Every structure is written in C-alpha cells, then in structure tokens.
C-alpha cells in the first residue's frame, strides 16, 4: 500500500480509568507499532474494552496518556481522532442503507458524492459484498452486517482500526472465515489493528502480538508463541492454553535454569524473568502436550522425569488425554497423539513421564 | 460462506425480517389472548361510535342533509379552522419544548426521576384545576405580569389570559407529556453504540443529532405529534376557561348542539372530527420518512 | 359523547370549584345563626314508603338541599331519598329512550323540560291536587313545577367602578364605567343575554319579549370589543371579578355571597336583572313516580322553601315562605318583594321556541 495508509503507532503510558472505587484500567503502558495487529486479550472485566474505548475517545482516562504517532490525543474528541472502529453489535445505522452507512464517515469529511460512491463501491468489493449497497442492515445476516461495519470503518482510510469483539456474536464457522478475512485485510491495508477479544484461540491465530490483560493490568505482552511457550506468570499460563502447575522448592540455580525439588524428584526449569533464592517455594508449569510417557521417547527421554499413577484415561479421537497423580498427590494432565502404535494406559497403571527442560517454566 | 444456511437458521429472524419459516406458521394464541379486549372494544366503543355515525344520517329520517349543509355553515367552518389552527400551534410548541426534555430524560439518567415527576405532576391534576392555575399565572394581575412589572420590563400588564395565546400555552402544558413520553421512549431505544459509532466515524455531536438521533427518534416524534394533535382537536374546557372571547372549538359546538338536543347535528360534527383524526393518522403512516421509521421500530 | 358529558359542566356543578381562590362557605353567618323553621306535620297523602331517587346539580347545592328538605322529608314521610349529582336533560332523553330510567326526579329548568317535551314524551304530568296552594300559579306548568328562584344580574367591583351602575345602559357605557366586561356565552349550552342587549339599547323591560334578534345583535356589536370573556359556567365571572380581569360582568346571583364573604369588594346591581327558576321534572316511566310527586309537593311547601333560602341565597316559589325568613336574609334573595320588582321575568316559552335560531345567530355574529 502507499505511504498514506501506513499504520499509526499508538503509545499508552500509565493509563488509568477509575470508576467510583474500582480501577477498571490500572496503569497500562503499551507501545503498539505502526502496522501491527495487536490483540488485547483477557477475561471479562479485565479492562481490555475500557482501554480500547479510551483509545477511541469514548472514555476519558483518569490518569496517564495516549499518544498516536507521538501526539497526545487525550483532549481530542472521538470525531477528530480519525480512527476506524468496529463494534461487537455492528452498530450499523438502521435507518441508512448499506451504501449510506459506509458513506457516512466520508460524508462527515466532506467527500463529494461521486467520489463517495466510488469509495463505497471499492470498500464493498474489499469486504466481498458488491451489489449490497441498496439494502438496509436489517436485510443482511449477522456476518454480512459485520462486514459492512468493517467496510465503514476502513473506507475513510484511517491509519488505526479498533475492533471490540467484532466476531463475538457470530457462530463458529463464520467466525473462522472472518478471522482469515481480517488477517488478509490487515495485510492488504498495512494499517494498525487493535483488536479486543476474550477468545484466546482467536488471539493466537490473528495477532502479531498479544497483550494479556488481567485486573486492569497488562499481565504479559508478546508474540503468540512467546506467550504460549514462555508465560511469565501463572495467570498467562492458565489463561492461554492448558497448563500443569507443579509446586516445587528451589535447590539450585544454574545460569537461567533452576533446579527444584518437585514431587520427590529434581526437576529443571527455565526461569526467564525470576531469580528465586534457594529454598524458596515456587510453581513450575508445563503444557500437557509437551509431556510423554518415558517409554514413548524411544530411549531419548529428556531430563525431567517423574513417577505417576494413571487416574483417568480418555480417548478423544486425535489424542488421548490422561489424568495422572504424582507421588505427593498433585494432578497432572498429559496429552498424547493417538496412534495405534502407541500403547494405551489403563487406569491404575504405574508409569514414568518425561519432558524437556525447555518446556518447563518457573512462573 | 454459507449465508444461505444462516438465512434459514435465524439471525435474520432475530433482526426482524419477516421472511423466515417461523413467520409462516399461523399462531392463533395472540388472537385468543386479545379476544376479550376486542369484544370489550366492540361492545363499548365500536358500537356506540357506529350508533353515533348512524344518527348523523338517520335522525329524524334517512338523509345526508346534515353533511350537505356543512360547507355553507360559516360557524362550522370558522370553528373548524380555529380548532385545527390551535391544534397545529399546540403540536408545534409541544414538539419544540418536549424534544429537549425527552433528550434530558434519556441522556441525564441522574435527573430522570425528577424530570419524570415534573412531567407527570400536572398529569395527576385535573384539567380544570390546571386551567385555574393558568388563570392565576397569566392574569393581568397574575404572577407573570406582576413579575415583569416588578422587573421593569413592562409598564402596564400584558393581555395574555383570555386570548388565544393563553389557550395555546395552557394546552401545550397539558399535552406536553403526550409528546415527551413517546419521544423519550424512542430515544431510549436508540442503541448508544450508534452514537459512539457516529462520533468515531467523524461526526460532531450536532451532526450526530441530525443524522442519527433525530431520524431514529422519528417513530416517537410521529406518535407524539399524532397524540397531541388529535387530543388537541377535542379540547373543550381549557379554551373555554383561559381562551379568548371568540374562541369556539368543535367540541364546544358539539356540546352546544347536544344541549340543544340537536343530536343529529352533534353526531355529524363528531363524525367530521373523527374523520379528521383518522385522516391525519392515515396521512402520517403514509409519510415516507415516518412510515419507514414506524416500520423500523419492529427492530 | 360520554367524554363530552363528563367534561362539560352544568350550571352549578362547579359551584364548589371556586375553592381555588375562595374558601368561604356559601352559608352566610347571619343566616346560619337564625333558627331554621321546622315543618312538624304533613298531610297523610304525602307520606309513604320505599325511596325516591333525585338528581340535582351536586356540590354546594346538594348540601343545601340535603339540609333544607331531603333529611326532613325522609323523617316525616318515611320515604328514603337517594341523591345523585349531574342532572342533565340530555341524560333524561337517553334514559327515557332506552327505557332505563335511573332517576325518579330531576332538577332542571322549565326551558329544558319543555324543550324535551316538544320532541316527545319525556316527562310525567304534575299532580297539582297535592301541591301546596301557596305556590304561585306563575311557577306551575304541566310537566314540571318550578321550585327555586334565582337571578342573572349585573355585578361589579366597587374599587374599579365609580358610583353604582344601574341597568344595562350603564353596563354598555364603558366611558362612564371603564374596564373590561364579561357576559354569558353559548359555548356549553348557554343562552345569550339578548334581553340585556335590548335593554341596553333602550327597549323597556316589558317590551323585551318577543326578542328582536337583529336589534339585540346590533346592540351587542357596541360592547363586543370590551367583552373579554363569554363565560360558560358560573365560576368564571366570579374568578374574573376576583382577579380584577373585569370591572363588570353578568353573574348568577348565588355565586356572589362567597365572593363577598372572601372580602372581594364586589356588589350586585339587581336593576334589570333576569329572574330565572329551576324546576322539578319527573322522567317518564320513573319507577317511584308517586314518591317523586309527594316530594315535589313537600319541597314546595312554605317551610321547606324557606329552609333552602337559609342555605343558599336563592328565593322561594311559595308566597308564604317569606314569613319564615329573617329580613336581612330576605334582602339578598331574588324573591324578596323589593328585588323581585326590579327583575324581568325570564320568558322560558320564547326561548323554547327560538333557542336554536338565537344561539346560531349569536354564534355567527360572534365569529364574524
């Protein structure tokens, strides 16, 4: 795309929003790069939507600053911020046709009628709804309405597009289709997307980076694979994907690897952020699909090992899911690809599991 | 993308398009539930009205003479024009005053209970008492004039009471709730995210009002205008009490004829009043903008 | 139609409404102190059993009627009285036509009774064999008996008018007696005061009837711009006087007592006033027709007629009543000899025949 459509950079500095007693947003600092697809991910009430609304200008921060391309916009009303926005409920004007809905932002900007018609047609083309201009929103399906909303949000070529759970009201299949379309649009337009969702899978598939939010704060920011492989706290590890949490006591520290006593054995774990003292109680986390029964490694079993008893075995098609009990009673989940070649365990079986140090994180 | 499947499954039905399969299934339940009301209305409303209409053409013998003489009846024509004009002014004033109040009612929820009480308060007082209150306020030695004189704005009292202006003021006051409540209701039904969307798309508040709020509140405006206008057509006590010496409304004329036991003529006038009200309601539904707004309300 | 009827207000239904500005009771203290005469015996023919349903105008009038003759009648005759408000000839018409006669007796006027009777058979004949001989023949007619005398007169504010206006030429003379006027209009079944217009134009009282409508309207033309209100209910002129909206108006005399009691410097000028009457009428087919007739006879006897004058400043139709009324009370009653001779007797017969034409001509003139 041309230079004019280059995405805006957004910088949030110590952003706060207080309502009466609660802090909906409690000190968020975040730098969103030009052209980036950044997702604010978190459970409801984590402050992600409030943060988005402050960027859009619909909520006024109690403290902190929002800068777009280095210029503070806090004092600027929404209609002067030139930001595209897509709402969860589409927010299409029911009294206007699709064409007039999409033309609305152009009209506000004084774009002449002929030009407007051309741009609206282009936008409809872009969201694959050519020929729908004369209809009213109520004559469209939910997915079509959302695509009209998207067209309306980008038709005036904003450099920043905000989306608030835009696919939340759609069914799964439609949602997946639209996720792909949004990715494509992002790539085509080259503008900055800030996307709010509570759906971790959606966040992982679409985003360049994800900011996980909890209790009004950013718990962790990073690329999807970083968040998955190297969660830096228990919340992130639990919120994104499934995790095992193992209580342990630190015995030794070797560079960025910690040696900890866990369920009566020594386990090694990466500690990317923390430097715990010897003897301190910590939690180690691993992903269920990164664990294997020791005999399945064909002799190459990694360092971390533990004896367990099978308490539950579930065959779930593409994988088998086992619930295991360690010596001290901690429950561990293990997921194994299902294969006729792999021996299945029965409830009550004694076994040894093994997993890589790289897949063990101290949180 | 399987829009066809979606079409069958429901999102369309959810947003009110009546082409889904469920719309085709006849459901008698609503009619059964409404039956007692319909019977009641037939017995106690429709029949008397029909009887009245019959009287206008059958008393003392079958004739349309009562109607035929109306176009030459100077008293009727003047009275009708006066009633119509007053209703028009009152509707306009109620709309101009009522819309901002309805906005405040919806947009300032903190004040809503107080505003609502202020709106409803006169509702709970009889028309007669309210008319007396206006006499006290607007009289030549009333509060309004005394205040203006005390403030040095006028030397001698203004004649407001016992003029058409007093009728217009008092009637607007009485009918204001009928304007405010439907408009407030329509405003309340506007999804707040539409206003945010408009703002986010670059529309300053006043343009958002003109382009989004106003058109979307049209069902309420139409309902309010209809209610106020049609009710104003039937006004009687207020113009008689605070109005000018030459203010005769159609209702007064009807009362006069009822009292003179000329019920056929009274029925004729009532029929004309009823027809006027119905014609106005019909015309409203046909207005392009408004009709669309009414239909949109199904959403 | 029913909405109409509930909103229109009869001549006296709004009597109590003045409460807005005037809280004084209608009963004047002087009269209240004097002992009310008691009827201790009645002829056996007026006694009976069961009940009689009487429709009046409600409000203060009803209170006066209860005390003056409903309660004593119940006690002495053994017939129970049930009072209803909202008497109205249009309701009688509907009741008789539908055969659902809910009242045995109604307070109306000779005009409305005869007007209705002209269109059909709506009233029972009065049995004059049992009516008291003291009732003046002038008040008797075939289908009703007049039982209350009141007057439509000139009233003025003493503080706004210098001197005492006497008669309608003075009322018309806005140079000599400056200030706005109010007169009875036609909006809710009222009758234009054409008699006054004629007298203002110099027609002597005994030449007023039959009314020359053209002449009356020509006379009205001279006062039109000064009349700020054509009132339709008795409360309105009283309010206009109280609020100093007018300096002079026509009123129903009964209303003035309350105004004066409230300290408003207003006065009645009886000269050239109209003497009007309320009448009892028995709707055709009334269930308790006999009891109604007995009540009519009782309530027009001298003492019950005197009692009503104690309660409300309206006069009696029984020549013997004045003996029972103290002189200071008599002085404010339209039936008092000194006042009666200043008044013109309202000619119901002329109005029965000419009402529609007169009202329609008046309407047309007013709107032109």
Automatic annotation (TrEMBL), chain A:
<protein>
    <recommendedName>
        <fullName>Spermidine/putrescine import ATP-binding protein PotA</fullName>
        <ecNumber>7.6.2.11</ecNumber>
    </recommendedName>
</protein>
<comment type="function">
    <text>Part of the ABC transporter complex PotABCD involved in spermidine/putrescine import. Responsible for energy coupling to the transport system.</text>
</comment>
<keyword id="KW-1003">Cell membrane</keyword>
<dbReference type="InterPro" id="IPR027417">
    <property type="entry name" value="P-loop_NTPase"/>
</dbReference>
<dbReference type="GO" id="GO:0015594">
    <property type="term" value="F:ABC-type putrescine transporter activity"/>
</dbReference>
<keyword id="KW-0813">Transport</keyword>
<dbReference type="GO" id="GO:0043190">
    <property type="term" value="C:ATP-binding cassette (ABC) transporter complex"/>
</dbReference>
<comment type="subunit">
    <text>The complex is composed of two ATP-binding proteins (PotA), two transmembrane proteins (PotB and PotC) and a solute-binding protein (PotD).</text>
</comment>
<dbReference type="InterPro" id="IPR017871">
    <property type="entry name" value="ABC_transporter-like_CS"/>
</dbReference>
<dbReference type="GO" id="GO:0005524">
    <property type="term" value="F:ATP binding"/>
</dbReference>
<dbReference type="InterPro" id="IPR003439">
    <property type="entry name" value="ABC_transporter-like_ATP-bd"/>
</dbReference>
<feature type="domain" description="ABC transporter">
    <location>
        <begin position="10"/>
        <end position="240"/>
    </location>
</feature>
<dbReference type="Pfam" id="PF00005">
    <property type="entry name" value="ABC_tran"/>
</dbReference>
<comment type="similarity">
    <text>Belongs to the ABC transporter superfamily. Spermidine/putrescine importer (TC 3.A.1.11.1) family.</text>
</comment>
<keyword id="KW-1278">Translocase</keyword>
TrEMBL record, chain B:
<feature type="transmembrane region" description="Helical">
    <location>
        <begin position="263"/>
        <end position="287"/>
    </location>
</feature>
<feature type="transmembrane region" description="Helical">
    <location>
        <begin position="208"/>
        <end position="237"/>
    </location>
</feature>
<feature type="transmembrane region" description="Helical">
    <location>
        <begin position="165"/>
        <end position="187"/>
    </location>
</feature>
<comment type="similarity">
    <text>Belongs to the binding-protein-dependent transport system permease family. CysTW subfamily.</text>
</comment>
<dbReference type="InterPro" id="IPR035906">
    <property type="entry name" value="MetI-like_sf"/>
</dbReference>
<keyword id="KW-0472">Membrane</keyword>
<keyword id="KW-1133">Transmembrane helix</keyword>
<feature type="transmembrane region" description="Helical">
    <location>
        <begin position="74"/>
        <end position="99"/>
    </location>
</feature>
<protein>
    <submittedName>
        <fullName>ABC transporter permease</fullName>
    </submittedName>
</protein>
<feature type="transmembrane region" description="Helical">
    <location>
        <begin position="111"/>
        <end position="133"/>
    </location>
</feature>
<feature type="domain" description="ABC transmembrane type-1">
    <location>
        <begin position="80"/>
        <end position="284"/>
    </location>
</feature>
<keyword id="KW-0812">Transmembrane</keyword>
<keyword id="KW-1003">Cell membrane</keyword>
<dbReference type="Pfam" id="PF00528">
    <property type="entry name" value="BPD_transp_1"/>
</dbReference>
<dbReference type="GO" id="GO:0055085">
    <property type="term" value="P:transmembrane transport"/>
</dbReference>
TrEMBL record, chain C:
<dbReference type="InterPro" id="IPR006059">
    <property type="entry name" value="SBP"/>
</dbReference>
<keyword id="KW-0732">Signal</keyword>
<dbReference type="GO" id="GO:0015888">
    <property type="term" value="P:thiamine transport"/>
</dbReference>
<comment type="similarity">
    <text>Belongs to the bacterial solute-binding protein 1 family.</text>
</comment>
<protein>
    <submittedName>
        <fullName>ABC transporter substrate-binding protein</fullName>
    </submittedName>
</protein>
<dbReference type="GO" id="GO:0030288">
    <property type="term" value="C:outer membrane-bounded periplasmic space"/>
</dbReference>
<dbReference type="Pfam" id="PF13416">
    <property type="entry name" value="SBP_bac_8"/>
</dbReference>
<feature type="signal peptide">
    <location>
        <begin position="1"/>
        <end position="34"/>
    </location>
</feature>
<dbReference type="GO" id="GO:0030975">
    <property type="term" value="F:thiamine binding"/>
</dbReference>
<keyword id="KW-0574">Periplasm</keyword>
<dbReference type="InterPro" id="IPR006311">
    <property type="entry name" value="TAT_signal"/>
</dbReference>
<dbReference type="GO" id="GO:0030976">
    <property type="term" value="F:thiamine pyrophosphate binding"/>
</dbReference>
<keyword id="KW-0813">Transport</keyword>
């Amino acid at each position: 795309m041309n230079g004019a459509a280059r995405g805006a950079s957004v910088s949030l500095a110590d952003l706060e929003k207080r309502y009466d007693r609660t802090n909906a947003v409690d000190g968020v600092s975040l730098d969103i790069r030009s052209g980036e697809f950044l997702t604010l991910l978190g459970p409801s009430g984590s402050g992600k939507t409030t943060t988005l609304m402050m960027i859009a200008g619909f909520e006024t921060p109690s403290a902190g600053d929002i800068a777009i391309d280095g210029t503070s916009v806090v004092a600027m009303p929404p209609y002067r911020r030139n930001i595209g926005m897509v709402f969860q409920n589409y927010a299409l004007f029911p009294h206007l046709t699709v064409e007039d809905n999409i033309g609305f932002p152009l009209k506000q900007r004084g774009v002449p009628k002929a030009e407007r018609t051309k741009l609206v047609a282009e936008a409809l083309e872009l969201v694959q709804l050519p020929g729908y201009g004369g209809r009213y929103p109520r004559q469209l399906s939910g997915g079509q309405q959302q695509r009209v909303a998207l067209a309306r949000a980008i038709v005036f070529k904003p450099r920043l597009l905000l989306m608030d759970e835009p696919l939340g009201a759609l069914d799964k299949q439609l949602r997946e289709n639209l996720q792909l379309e949004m990715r494509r649009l992002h790539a085509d337009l080259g503008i900055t997307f800030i996307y709010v969702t509570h759906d971790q899978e959606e966040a992982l598939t679409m985003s360049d980076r994800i900011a996980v939010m909890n209790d009004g704060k950013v718990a962790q920011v990073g690329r999807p694979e970083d968040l998955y492989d190297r969660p830096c706290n228990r919340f992130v590890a639990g919120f994104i994907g499934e995790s095992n949490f193992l209580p342990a006591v630190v015995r030794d520290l070797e560079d960025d690897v910690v040696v900890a006593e866990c369920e009566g054995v020594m386990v090694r774990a990466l500690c990317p952020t923390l430097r715990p003292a010897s003897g301190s109680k910590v939690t180690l986390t691993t992903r269920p699909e990164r664990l294997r029964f020791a005999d399945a490694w064909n002799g190459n079993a990694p360092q971390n090992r533990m004896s367990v008893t099978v308490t539950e075995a579930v065959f779930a098609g593409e994988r088998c899911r086992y619930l295991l009990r360690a010596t001290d009673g901690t429950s561990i989940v293990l997921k194994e690809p299902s294969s006729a070649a792999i021996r299945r365990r029965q409830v009550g079986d004694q076994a040894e599991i093994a997993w890589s140090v790289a897949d063990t994180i101290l949180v | 993308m399987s829009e066809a499947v979606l079409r069958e499954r429901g999102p369309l039905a959810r947003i009110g398009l009546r082409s889904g399969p469920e719309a085709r299934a006849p459901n008698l339940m609503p009619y059964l539930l409404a039956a007692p009301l319909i019977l009641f209305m037939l017995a106690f409303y429709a029949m008397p009205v029909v009887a009245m209409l019959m009287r206008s053409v059958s008393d003392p013998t079958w004739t349309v003479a009562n109607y035929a003489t109306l176009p030459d009846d100077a008293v009727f024509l003047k009275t009708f024009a006066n009633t119509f004009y007053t209703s028009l002014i009152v509707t306009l004033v109620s709309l101009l005053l009522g819309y901002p109040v309805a906005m405040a009612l919806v947009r300032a929820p903190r004040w809503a209970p107080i505003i609502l009480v202020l709106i409803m308060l006169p509702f709970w007082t009889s028309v007669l008492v309210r008319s007396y209150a206006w006499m006290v306020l607007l009289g030549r030695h009333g509060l309004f004039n005394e205040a203006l004189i005390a403030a040095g704005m006028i030397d001698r009292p203004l004649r407001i009471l016992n003029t058409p202006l007093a009728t217009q003021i008092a009637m607007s006051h009485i009918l204001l709730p009928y304007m405010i409540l439907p408009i407030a209701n329509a405003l309340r039904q506007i999804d707040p995210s539409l206003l945010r969307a408009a703002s986010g798309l670059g529309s300053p508040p006043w343009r958002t009002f003109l382009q989004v709020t106003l058109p979307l509140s049209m069902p309420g405006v139409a309902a309010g205008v209809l209610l106020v206008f049609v009710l104003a057509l039937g006004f009687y006590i207020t113009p008689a009490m605070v109005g000018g010496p030459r203010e005769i409304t159609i209702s007064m004329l009807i009362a006069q004829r009822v009292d003179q036991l000329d019920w056929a003529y009274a029925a004729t006038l009532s029929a004309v009043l009823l027809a006027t009200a119905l014609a106005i309601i019909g015309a409203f539904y046909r207005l392009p903008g408004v009709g669309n707004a009414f239909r949109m309300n199904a959403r | 139609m029913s909405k109409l009827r509930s909103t229109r207000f009869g001549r006296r239904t709004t009597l109590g409404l003045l409460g807005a500005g005037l809280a004084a009771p209608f009963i004047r203290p002087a009269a209240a102190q004097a002992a009310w005469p008691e009827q201790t015996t009645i002829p056996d023919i007026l006694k009976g059993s069961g009940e009689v349903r009487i429709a009046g105008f409600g409000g203060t009038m009803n209170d006066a009627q209860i005390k003056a003759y409903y309660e004593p009648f119940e006690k002495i005759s053994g017939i129970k009285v049930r009072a209803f408000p909202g008497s109205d000839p249009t309701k009688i018409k509907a009741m008789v036509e539908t055969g659902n006669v809910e009242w045995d007796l109604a307070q109306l006027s000779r005009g409305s009774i005869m007007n209705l009777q002209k269109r059909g058979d709506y009233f029972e004949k009065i049995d004059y064999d049992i009516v008291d001989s003291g009732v003046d023949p002038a008040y008797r007619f075939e289908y009703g008996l007049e039982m209350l005398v009141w007057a439509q007169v000139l009233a003025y504010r003493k503080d706004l008018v210098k001197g005492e206006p006497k008669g309608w030429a003075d009322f018309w003379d806005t140079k000599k007696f400056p200030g706005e006027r109010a007169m009875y209009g036609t909006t809710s079944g009222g009758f234009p005061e054409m008699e006054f217009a004629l007298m203002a134009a110099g027609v002597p009282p005994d030449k007023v009837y039959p009314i020359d409508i053209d002449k009356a309207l020509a006379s009205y033309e001279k006062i039109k711009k000064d009349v700020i209100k054509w009132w339709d209910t008795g409360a309105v002129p009283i309010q206009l006087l109280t609020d100093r909206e007018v300096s002079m108006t026509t009123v129903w005399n009964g209303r003035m007592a309350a105004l004066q009691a409230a300290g408003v410097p207003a006065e009645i000028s009886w000269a050239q006033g109209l003497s009007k009457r309320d009448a009892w009428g028995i709707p055709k087919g009334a269930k308790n027709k006999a009891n109604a007739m007995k009540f009519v006879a009782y309530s027009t006897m001298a003492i019950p007629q005197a009692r009503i004058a104690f309660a409300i400043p309206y006069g009696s139709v029984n020549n013997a009543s004045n003996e029972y009324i103290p002189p200071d009370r008599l002085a404010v009653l339209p039936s008092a000899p000194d006042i009666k001779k200043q008044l013109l007797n309202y000619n119901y017969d002329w109005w029965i025949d000419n009402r529609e034409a007169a009202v329609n001509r008046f309407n047309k003139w007013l709107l032109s």
